[in-house]
Amino acid sequence: MQGFSGAPGREGPLAEVPPAGLRRIWMWGILIALGGFLFGFDTGVISGALLFIRPDFGLNSFQQGSVVSVLVLGAMVGALTSGRLADRFGRKRALEVEGLVFLAGTVIAVFAPGYGTLLAGRLVLGLAVGAASATVPIYLSEISPKDIRGRLLTLNQLMITVGILVAYLVNLAFSGSGDWRAMIAVGAVPAFVIVAAAVLVLPESGVWLLEHGRRGQCRELIASVTNTATADRLIERYERRTSEEAAREPRETGARALLGTRVRPALVVGLALAALQQFAGINTIIYYAPTIIEQTGLTASNAIFYSIAIGVINLLMTIVAIRAIDRAGRRRLMLGSLAVMTVTMVLLGLSFVADWSSELSLVFMVVYIAGYAAGLGPVFWTMIGEIFPARAHAAGSGASTAVNWASNFAVSLAFLPIAGAIGQGETFWIFAAISLLGLLFVARYVPETKHRDYAAIDADLQRRFGRRPPENAAAGG
Ligand code: BGC
User: Fold this and answer.
1) N or C: which end of the chain has fewer CB within 10 A?
2) Residue 378 CA to ligand 1 centre (angstroms)
3) CB 144 within 8 A of CB 29
4) What digits encode the pLDDT tens for the residues 433-445?
C-alpha cells in the first residue's frame, strides 16, 4: 500500500527497513507517542476533576479557570524550551526528562493540600505536556522510514485522542466517589512507562547521533533493524546528502536557521497551521462540550455521556486519517477537513440562532469533530515534523507547537466571554469564517509532503511562495 516513491528519505539515515525491523520501529513509535497520550489525558482529565475540586477547595470561578488554563500556559513555555533540550541532550534524554516532569507534576497535583499547590502541580504538568508535544513529532519523524513516516507521525495525534477519551472515562469511573485525586493520579502510570521505556528500550534518533559525531552508535541502531552492510550504506548515503546540502545551504542551525530567508516559507506554514488548528474552535468543543450541550436544552447529567461520544468520534476518525494520510496525502485530508468544519460551524451557529432542536446541534458538533479529526488534527502534527530542514527541525517544530499552545490559551480563555457578549451561535460563525480562510491558505501555500524527501518538499514550498527552487532539488514524490 505504501512506498510508490523511489526518492530516498532525507529525514533520517533509517531510510530502508525490512518488515521485521519495521515492527520494532512501530513499537518504538508507540512508546514515544505515550507523550501524546499524556498530553490528551492531562488536558482532558481536568474537566471532570474540577467538578469535585471546586467544592473541596471552595474555588471561585476565576480560580477554576486558572486551574484549567495554567496548564496551557506551562505548555507554551515547555514547547519553547524543549527544542533546545532535545538538540543538546538528544531526543531520548529529552523524553526521559519529560516523563520525570510528568511524574513530578502528577504527584504535586495529587497531594495538593490547597489551591496554590494544585496550581503549581498543573503548571509543572503543563511544562511536560508542552515539551512532550514538541519532542514527540521530532523523535517520531527521525526514527521513521519515509514510507511509513506519515502514519507513524499520526500516532502522536492518535495517542492525544486516546488520552482525551481515557480521561473522560476515568472521570466517569470516579465521578461516583468524587475522588478527583484518583482521577489525576491515573496519569502517573503512562508517565512511569515513558521513563522506563526511555531508559531501557528506546534508541536515540539516528539523525541526532550523526549530527553529534556518534557514528558507531548510529550504525548499531540501524543494524538493529536491518544489518551492518545496510547500516553502512545508509549512513554513507545520508552523510553524502547532508554534505551536499551543507554545500548549498547556510550553516546556521536552530532559531537562526529558522529565521533565514530559505526556511521562512516553512515557518509561515508551520505557524499558520498551528494558529488555524486552534482558532478554528476545536477546544471550545473538547473543553466546553458539556457546557455547550447543556445550553442546547439537554440535562447536565447527560453531559459526561455526550462528552464520551465526542471523545469516541474523535478517536475513530483519527484512525481513519491514519489509514488515509499516506495514500490520500496531507493536502487532500486537510482541505476536506476544513470544508467540513466550515459547513458544520455555519450550521451549528444557525441551530443556536434559529433555535433548532438540541439533537441537531449535537449532530453538527459530532460531524465537526469528525471533520477535524480526519484532517486538521493529525495533519498539523505530521507536517511540523516534515517541512523543516534537519538543522531547523527542533526549533521549527518547537515554535509551531508554542504558537499552537498560545492560540489554544487565547481561544479557551476568550470563548465563554465572547459567546456571552455576542451570542453562542454568532461565535461559531467566527470559527466558520476562520476555517474558510484556513481552507484558502492551505489550498495556496501548504505543500504536499506525502512520500517526498525534504528537497522535494522544500522545492514545492519555495514555488508556492513565489521563489525559485534551489538548483538540483530532487523532484521526488
Ligand atoms: C490539538 C489539541 C486538541 C486535540 C483534540 C490536538 O491536535 O492540538 O489542542 O485538544 O487535538 O483531539
Assistant:
1) N
2) 9
3) yes
4) 999 999 999 999 9
